[in-house]
Amino acid sequence: MSGADLEIDLPAGAAGGAGPRMDWRAGAGRAVSGRITVPGDKSISHRALMLAALADGETRIEGFLEGEDTRATAAILAAMGVAIQAPADAVRLVRGVGLHGLRAPAQALDCGNSGTAMRLLAGLLAGQDFDSVLTGDVSLSTRPMRRVVEPLTTMGARVAATPAGTAPLSIRGGQCLRGGDHVLPVASAQVKSALLLAGLRADGPVRMREPHATRDYTESMLRAFGVDIETDASGWISLQPPARLLSPGRIEVPADFSSAAFFLVAASVVPGSELAIECVGLNPRRTGLLDSLLDMGADIAIGNRREAGGETVADLHVRHAPLLGIDVPPARVPDMIDEFPALFAAAALAEGETRIAGAAELRVKESDRIAVMAAGLRVLGIAIEERPDGAVIRGGRPRGGVRLDSAGDHRCAMALAVLAQAAPAPVTIGDCANVATSFPGFVELAAAVGLELAPGQSFHARGDRLRR
Prior knowledge:
Layout: E1 7-8, E2 24-27, E3 33-36, H1 42-54, E4 56-62, H2 68-79, E5 83-85, E6 91-97, E7 109-110, H3 115-126, E8 132-135, H4 146-154, E9 158-160, E10 169-172, E11 180-183, H5 189-199, E12 206-209, H6 217-224, E13 228-231, E14 237-240, E15 250-252, H7 257-269, E16 274-281, H8 288-295, E17 299-308, E18 311-319, H9 340-348, E19 353-356, H10 369-379, E20 383-387, E21 390-394, E22 403-405, H11 410-419, E23 427-430, H12 442-449, E24 452-455
Parallel strand pairs: 3-16, 4-15, 7-8, 11-12, 22-23
Antiparallel strand pairs: 1-5, 2-23, 2-24, 4-6, 5-6, 8-10, 9-10, 12-14, 13-14, 16-18, 17-18, 19-21, 20-21
Helix pairs in contact: 1-2, 1-3, 1-6, 3-5, 4-5, 7-9, 7-11, 9-10, 9-11
């Protein structure tokens, strides 16, 4: 984006799609070094847009992730009458229309590849006065939606999925949403968030409890917009539907820990590496991978802790260190569910066995991440025993000269690219275009810090985001 104001007034779906198929070529690079900042947190960017759209007045969002997923959310809100400007890269000015100000869209609302957008918007739209339909790309249209449809239905919403429980989701407007208590069957921040957003239009207080605590980005963001929400010692989350309009303001989005994860692993496993990653969000419900890497013997120092946008952030300084296999505690799984592909890469290069259990949720992400990563490790010659809810990985040295398939999953593609840095010959990674959904510029930044990675057959490095 340039510095000139850009009014976002796109039809729903205009930002969707990751473009033509793209393959990567990766191989042994030099030591990873430098001082970098990764893009803004995707989860927070989605939530900031949605609540800013419901606020009364203008909200400035800084650190916004310029990814296809978040742009799809912006396009959807624009299709319902929300004015959004982009005066600079990673900045959005959102002129909220209030809790009752959204307009009926002229067509289906295309969430692209974003499960976060679809599940959260299902909650946001459940209490509106108009009908709506949420669609997505081929990958998103295979992902489970009953987990959000059913609890919304118990609130009085009328949300219909396909007979398979997948998108598109048809939402009937004009329903009276009921408050009350909900015990959620799965530990999912997206399901919890959908109910909280629906609760903004409920006829009374909404309370819910999860099997395990998940990331609390939505709770923090609701508080920032002036909504009365509390969590008690027994784990119940209580939301009081607002009696007044949501308050606009300034939201600072921290750097995405999920994006930083690939560089934490790369610097840990490539000899001679030393890398600093600045202003990384360290929400305690998000940093299970950090704890696991430290358990494996990683040399990661956490410094300059501070607050940004209601979240704890810090600078992470990582040096190469030999890693050892561990048993990942099942209780830690919800706090690292998006980072498991990166953990698979670390485990593949660690000494001994790493055991993962209780992670069946990985089967229903953008891909079946257990199957995709297991297939990639086998092709690379790494011993792995795939299990229904995890895997046992025995570390080794990957072979080169092979072709891997990311199955169009952005996190698997980036994890396989990191793992390929230990291969003795170049590796081709197929179907990587969807990396643009969460980490535009990953290839350039990776090459700039020392990873051997490029689209197609030519290696290059560009240092425009690297400060040495």
